[in-house]
Specification:
- The complex is a heterotetramer of chains A (128), B (149), C (661) and D (269).
- Chain A is an all-alpha fold and 128 residues long.
- Chain A folds into two domains: 93 residues, Fumarate Reductase Iron-sulfur Protein, Chain B, domain 2 (Orthogonal Bundle), CATH 1.10.1060.10; 29 residues, no CATH class.
- The relative contact order of chain A is 0.16.
- The mean pLDDT of chain A is 91.
- Chain B has 149 residues and is an alpha/beta fold.
- Chain B has a single domain, classed as Rossmann fold (3-Layer(aba) Sandwich).
- Helices cover 38% and strands 15% of the residues of chain B.
- Chain B has a four-stranded parallel β-sheet, sandwiched between helices.
- In chain B, helix 1 crosses helix 4.
- Chain B starts with 14 loop residues before the first strand and ends in a 13-residue tail after the last helix.
- Chain C is of the alpha/beta class and 661 residues long.
- Chain C folds into five domains: 124 residues, Rossmann fold (3-Layer(aba) Sandwich), CATH 3.40.50; 176 residues, FAD/NAD(P)-binding domain (3-Layer(bba) Sandwich), CATH 3.50.50.60; 58 residues, no CATH class; 159 residues, FAD/NAD(P)-binding domain (3-Layer(bba) Sandwich); 67 residues, Alpha-Beta Plaits, CATH 3.30.70.
- Helix content of chain C is 28%, strand content 25%.
- Chain C is built from 18 helices and 34 strands.
- In chain C, the strands form twelve sheets. In chain C, strands 10-7-6-18-29 form a five-stranded parallel β-sheet. In chain C, strands 20-27-21-22-23 form a five-stranded parallel β-sheet. Chain C has a four-stranded parallel β-sheet with strand order 2-1-3-4, sandwiched between helices.
- The two termini of chain C are 21 Å apart.
- With 269 residues, chain D is an alpha/beta fold.
- Helix content of chain D is 45%, strand content 11%.
- In chain D, helix 3 packs across helix 4.
- Classes of the chains: A mainly alpha (128), B alpha/beta (149), C alpha/beta (661), D alpha/beta (269).
- Chains in contact: A-C, A-D, B-C, C-D.
- At the C-D interface, strand 24 of C face loops of D.
Chain lengths: 128, 149, 661, 269
């Protein structure tokens, strides 16, 4: 896919419109996982808008989003950057063999108290 | 007459909109100056106030082949003549009930409040109304029975 | 049969690019009564109008159809041109093929087809047009200005100077408005009080000006040139004629714990108070919700102290009725309380304030005498963070969609003034864009950056919270691509401005239209910016949209000029499109009079002569000077005796027929 | 008053306390909880994007079952609540999703969002009433400074969840007051604990959880309450820099109502 097609696909998956962004940066000002991300929420918006999706697909940033909806709640323009992060991640893990998480990895990560909810959520977020 | 339906030709409804001069006509102008498109099937007749719309005009429109009629006025409380839209609302409630009784579907008639600032609402309302009427198809209940020239 | 000329305008490419104007003119030629049809690049231009005038004369036209832009735009232009060529102006009709055709359709074929139908409808209407002659009505030579802020004061002064009587209605106990609360004004940093208070004194002293303070407009009737307005004077419980404004009563009031609105609640006032030292009129007012005497009849201290015996606990609300030729709306604005935006902690943290509150904290006449102290503990803040665009420029239901316009400039002002007083203060400003389009505005903002070293951070704040006695501000720095947290002592929110809430009901009373944000709309965004679409109603200041003081003052002057232009006329031409009664079929049932909002219909005993009958009976008669032409009576009339000139039943039916055929 | 009750998977295993005390308290308050038959996992997280259909289907099935029973659907776990409530909102507002979900599920009757999803705390506020609840408290938490931890899922997005003001909520504080405790308002009560990221980046979860606890501690809290098993895990297991005890709100509720049995001491203490 070329850049334009990639952009359109992300917009389709996410159901949100990055061109509504006024580049205020409130999403990045509010993001609790900011420090862990190579590309920050506002960059997701701007890069998706430009169709510059490849670097996002290759970046670890897409796995750092906590899905806490802080950027979704506080975005003054209803761009909802969290949805774009999710869409890019989905574009990646929907590809064959691109699962970020394997059932085999699990035992060493799980401790006795870890709620099922975490495991289910992580599989939802990181694998298809 | 029933063969008409089988024609492949796309049905283009004929729709008359009565717009009050102060709010809705200005709203239509704003839709235009904002370049908000809506289908060309609707033609606007300017009236000073929605209360100028005589039920006879609507009957006449249906009789002459209109497929839908919409009346647009100022929002309740905002009428340039203070109370005109309230009269329009009551009159149309009665008329639409009667038309419904006659078999002209309720969806073919509508009253909407559009202010001078609501260009987007005007365009959206028209698109929606045209869409509704298009789905209903041609109006066949009231027809012009005079000899055609 | 009329002799009709049809003129199709290209409007440059505005129409011609999507509508085949030649085809429209050609189609018009085939219509009954059309003796001439042409098209031209700009019909509204001088040469376009000449074409129209020449054709009227050459072809002896009795009716004209112009296919062009909206009649709201140029109907008057073309009617005037026709009149100058000897044609009755009401024989001109417009087919709107721009706003309602070429601008909304993309396909040439579709647009042309629609344009032809619209032209046919207008031609069908003109066939039935009759020459109309406008009547005249008197102009009441008095103006009403609603709102006594800088906009209202300036408008009133300008009208009064031209020699006309003008009344100001102000709902607060004093005139002065928001400007009276300001410290300094950008970009020249002159003191707001120093430039405003002399104007307040001037307007109060002017022989042509009457100020109704602590009053509200409660009813408006009538029309341009002749409005009848009811003004409610709320009771101050002070006899205005006796009071000397000494203020002794305010000092002795025992109810000293009322939040002082003028200082944004940062200090307290008594139940009887004068809003501020330079108030005009300088009269105290009793807050009925707080006064012990008014609540339970116990106290009366202020009355005992007052040597002038001016305290009157029995004062009642009073309704004043006055007639005006013109009304100016100058209802101004409010700064929103950012309670909807708790990520900025306005509710939970006392050291987060709005910029208008900050203005009072900086003001030498304010609650802290100009010493900057943070509200929580009275300490001087060493680090201050300003946040721009709070509640403005948004898309969700919380925010206003517009830019509040003044915040960039007043924030630069606040930053510089603070640095002037306390050079060791650290100031950070979070901004999205800096908007400084005004004379000396950008230079002003640059001074804050370059001379005063104010730290402007491009980015927005995500969260403000209190931690260990500091106000923590977490936001993004988009230029450095960092998330930063600043430990501040105080945070100032540039929250959005909004029209004063009283504007909404006033708009309804005046039947003046408002936009979706409750700002009053202007008759034309570019060419008639100070007039409301409702004739005789003018707009001054923030009630029309966000603006700064210089803009407000210039708009106030412009509104005054429009009022003066109106009041200078002795008579006004009426709208001739009014109701008319066909008395030969009227049965005098009174239904039309019942629906008439203006009381324009009366009944007379009249001899009616028709071929069938000859009798004296009660019939309706329309007062053409009072009728505004809404047409409510025409529909209600059971015998179809009532009709509306210019929009007759037959004319509208003809349009319907033309469209449906 | 009868509710269809959806416990969710975690409440059956790691978060039994959240469930047990919710049931016991409901009984004490005269609220009847009918567990939905054969319920399935909600999916754990709401798929934010609009083209994820399959991941929302199990929630639709649950919602449709509650509709059949004719009751409002009651949840306790914040995550389940978030997923179910948002999916319900999608069924109502997103015609495309509604169409696809119904076509796929082939239910006896199309599901169009008829079920009302209610969180246990909302039930306490709206059906029981905090004033009524207060009257039934036998062991009030006198003098206890309790910090309510909302996390993100109960509140956001505010326009869909409509639980409380998403930036300045007060419902859990009101609950604490009703139970006789003193609520502690602290700024990080609506900031993320790290959630499932603990499996991907433990240090990030630790950072977030510690931040929340530090904020509560700074404002003088004696304990923290939560409605979410994952928040509980993160605050206890990852928020190791602070030793504030963390409880499920239902445990406090049961204790205050006197239905917590002897020997079930607050083992986080």
């Amino acid at each position: 896919m070329n850049n334009e097609q990639l952009r359109d696909e992300i917009i389709r998956i996410s159901g949100t419109n990055p061109s509504k962004c006024m580049k205020c940066g409130k999403c990045s000002g509010t993001c609790p996982a900011y420090e862990e991300m190579e590309y920050h929420p506002h960059q997701f918006v701007s890069m998706v808008q430009k169709g510059d999706i490849e670097p996002l697909l290759e970046s670890k940033s897409i796995f750092k989003c906590l899905t806490c909806f802080a950027c979704v709640e506080r975005c003054p323009r209803s761009v909802e950057p969290g949805k774009l992060v999710e869409a890019v991640r989905l574009m990646l893990i929907r590809q064959k063999g691109a699962n970020h998480f394997d059932a085999e990895d699990l035992p060493c990560l799980v401790d006795d108290d870890l709620p099922q909810q975490a495991v289910v959520s992580a599989f939802r977020k990181y694998s298809k | 007459m029933q063969i008409e339906e089988n024609k492949n030709e796309e049905f283009k409804p004929c729709i008359v909109a009565f717009c009050c001069n102060w709010c809705s006509y200005a709203g239509a102008d704003l839709a235009g100056s904002s370049r908000l498109t809506y289908p060309a099937d609707v033609k606007i007749i300017r009236v000073p106030c929605s209360c100028r719309v005589n039920p006879l005009f609507i009957l006449r429109a249906f009789q002459r082949g209109a497929d839908g009629v919409i009346i647009c006025g100022c929002h309740p409380g905002d009428c340039h003549y203070t109370t005109g839209n309230y009269y329009a609302r009551r009159r149309m409630t009665l008329l639409f009930g009667m038309l419904d009784y006659l078999g002209i579907e309720r969806e073919r008639t509508r009253v909407e409040w559009v202010s001078a600032a609501e260009g987007a609402k005007f365009a959206a309302t028209m698109s929606d109304f045209i869409d509704t009427v298009t789905k209903l198809g041609r109006n066949r209940k009231l027809r012009d029975l005079r000899c055609k020239e | 049969m009329q002799r009709i000329g049809v003129f199709v305008c290209w409007c440059g490419s505005n129409i011609a690019a999507t509508v085949d104007v030649k085809a429209v003119a050609e189609a018009a030629k085939g219509q009954p009564g059309v003796v001439f049809a042409t098209d031209y690049q700009y019909m509204c231009s001088e040469s376009g109008q000449t074409i129209l005038k020449d054709a009227i004369k050459e072809y002896g036209l009795t009716g004209v159809v112009i296919c062009s832009c909206s009649p709201r735009m140029h109907e008057a232009t073309f009617r005037k041109a026709a009149e100058s060529a000897g044609l009755n102006p009401y024989m001109v009709e417009i087919a709107n093929i721009r706003e309602q055709c070429s601008w909304i359709h993309k396909d040439m074929e579709v647009a042309t087809e629609k344009a032809i139908i619209l032209a046919k409808a207008a031609i069908a209407k003109v066939q039935l047009n009759k020459p109309l002659v406008a009547g005249e009505s008197e102009v009441v030579k008095r103006a009403l200005v609603i709102g006594g802020g800088i906009a209202g004061i300036q408008t009133a002064l300008d009208i009064a100077e031209a020699g006309y009587k003008v009344d100001i209605v102000e709902k607060q106990p004093t005139i002065g408005g928001k400007m009276a609360q300001l410290d300094k004004t950008f970009p020249t940093l002159d003191c707001a009080a120093c430039i405003l208070t002399p104007k307040m004194v001037d307007v109060a002293a002017h022989e042509n000006v009457t100020i109704y303070s602590y009053s509200e407009v409660v009813d408006v009737k009538g029309f341009v040139g002749n409005f009848t307005v009811q003004i409610k004077k709320k009771p101050r419980y002070i006899n205005e004629n006796l009071c000397t404004g000494c203020g002794a009563c305010t000092e002795k009031c025992p109810m000293k714990k009322q939040p002082n609105e003028f200082n944004m609640g940062f200090d307290k006032r008594g139940a009887i108070y004068i809003p501020f030292a330079q108030a005009v009129p300088k009269l105290p007012v009793i807050d009925a919700d707080a006064c012990l005497m008014l609540k339970n009849g116990k106290c009366g201290l202020c009355s005992k102290i007052c040597e002038a015996h001016a305290i009157d606990y029995t004062q009642k609300e009073e309704i004043i009725e006055e007639r005006y030729g013109a009304i100016v709306v100058a209802t101004g604005f409010n700064q929103i309380k950012p309670t909807q935006f708790e990520e900025y902690a306005y509710n939970t943290c006392p050291d987060v304030v709005t910029s208008l509150e900050y203005e009072r904290l900086m003001n030498a006449a304010g609650p802290t005498k100009g010493h900057l102290q943070r509200p929580s503990d009275g300490q001087r803040p060493k680090t201050i963070v300003f946040i721009q665009c709070v509640g403005s420029r948004g898309d969700s239901c919380r925010e206003k969609s517009y830019c509040s316009k003044i915040c960039c400039m007043y924030t630069a002002k606040h930053a510089m003034l603070t640095k002037d007083h306390y050079p060791d203060t650290d100031i950070h400003v979070f901004y999205i864009d800096i908007r400084t389009p005004g004379k000396n505005f950008d230079e002003f903002y640059r001074r804050a950056v370059e001379q005063y070293g104010v730290d402007y951070i491009k980015g927005m704040v995500g969260k403000v919270y209190e931690e260990n006695g500091k106000v923590m501000v977490q936001g993004s720095d988009l230029i450095d691509n960092k998330q930063i947290t600043i430990a501040a002592d105080m945070v100032v929110l540039a929250s959005a401005v909004e029209p004063d809430p009283s504007a909404r009901s006033l708009g309804t009373m005046l039947t003046a239209s408002m936009d979706t944000n409750d700002f009053f709309t202007e008759a034309h965004a570019k060419l008639r910016p100070v007039e409301s679409p409702t004739a005789g109603v003018f707009l001054s200041g923030m009630c029309q949209g966000p603006k700064d003081i210089p803009e407000t003052v210039s708009q106030a002057g412009a509104a005054a000029v429009k009022v003066i232009g109106l009041l200078a006329k002795d008579k006004l031409k009426n709208n001739p499109c009014v109701a008319a009664c066909n008395q030969s079929v009227c049965n005098g049932c009174s239904q039309c009079a019942n629906v008439c909002p203006y009381g324009a219909i009366t009944y007379v005993e009249k001899e009616i002569r028709t071929p069938e009958v000859r009798e004296v009976r009660r019939v309706a008669e329309v007062n053409e000077a009072v009728c505004q032409g809404c047409g409510a009576c025409t529909v209600t009339c059971p015998s179809s005796a009532m009709d509306l000139k210019g929009f007759t039943n037959r004319q509208i039916m003809a349009e319907v027929d033309a469209i449906c055929r | 008053m009868t509710y269809s009750y959806y416990p969710g998977c975690t409440l059956r295993t790691k978060a039994k306390k959240l469930d047990t005390y919710a049931r016991r308290s409901a009984e004490a308050l005269g609220i009847n909880l009918e567990e939905i038959e054969q319920w399935q996992c909600c999916g754990g997280v709401y798929p934010s994007v609009s083209d994820e259909i399959a991941t929302r289907l199990s929630s639709v099935r649950t919602l449709a079952q509650a509709k059949k029973a004719g009751n409002e659907l009651l949840t306790v776990c914040s995550a389940c609540h978030n997923v179910l409530k948002r999916t319900n909102a999608d069924i109502i507002s997103d015609a495309d999703f509604n169409f696809r979900a119904n076509n796929y599920l082939e239910l006896d009757e199309r599901y169009n969002g008829e079920t009302k999803v209610v969180h246990y705390i909302e039930m306490l506020r709206d059906a029981v009433g905090f004033d009524e609840l207060k009257k039934k408290v036998v062991n009030p938490f006198k003098g206890k400074k309790i910090a309510a931890y909302y996390g993100c899922l109960l509140l956001r997005p505010g326009n869909v969840m409509q639980f409380d003001d998403p930036e300045n909520p007060s419902i859990m504080e009101d609950l604490i007051r009703a139970l006789g405790g003193e609520p502690v308002i602290y700024p990080f009560r609506n900031e993320c604990c790290g959630g499932y990221i603990t499996l991907e980046d433990k240090s990030l979860a630790q950072k977030r959880s510690n931040k929340v606890l530090a904020s509560a501690q700074e404002k003088g809290a004696d304990m923290v309450i939560t409605a979410c098993p994952l928040c509980m895990y993160n605050l206890v297991k990852n928020g190791t820099e602070h030793d504030l005890p963390v409880y499920y709100f239902t445990e406090l509720l049961a204790d205050a109502l006197g239905v917590k049995q002897e020997g079930e001491g607050q083992d986080n203490e």
